[in-house]
Amino acid sequence: MLIHNLYHYRRYILHNAWNELHFRYAGTGIGIFWNLIHPLCKIIIYTIVFSLLLSRGTQGHSYALYLTSGLLPWRTFADAIVQGGNAFTQNATYLKRLAIPPEIFVAKVAVTSFLLLFIYLILLLPLSAAFGGHLGLSLLLLPLLAILLQGLGFGMELVLANLQTLFPDIRQSLQFLIPLWSWTMPIFYPDAVIPPAIHPWLYLNPPYVLI
Fold first, then answer.
1. pLDDT for residue 124 is more than 70
2. Total domain count for the chain?
């Protein structure tokens, strides 16, 4: 039933996902480019801080590449969970008036995040070449990994969206749980600072496996 609804409303999902991405910062001077500026500012700040403070692990330009390749996918994943988890309550008026399955609104958020992640991955290729990264055949796996990451997010969004209709406090809890979750993975800091004995446990964290 879920797959049928997603396929039946695929044009509605894609159209609204693109509009959400395009008009998310409507009314601002540079509009859609804020999607790039926000993560870029974070990357610059973390690169400066960790490159100066950490003497172990990745440093300098290599750390910038390491951070960029982890932070951009995580940002789209985390934002999708927060916004998708709020999809039912945010679109309650439409759900009451329109004969549209509720999961369509969650799917719109997931597709928006996937489109943004796809843009990030395209931009990551010249950055990787500039910072000395290796561009091999493994790049062909990036679209598949992006789909799996956003698919994981979509499943979590559906669960959270249903739970938030019963427990509104979940939305507030996510405001500190999501940032806390990000620090359980070596995204902002190099994995070299983690004791080797803990490394196998990292793979129990599904986003880390894909990122």
1. yes
2. 1
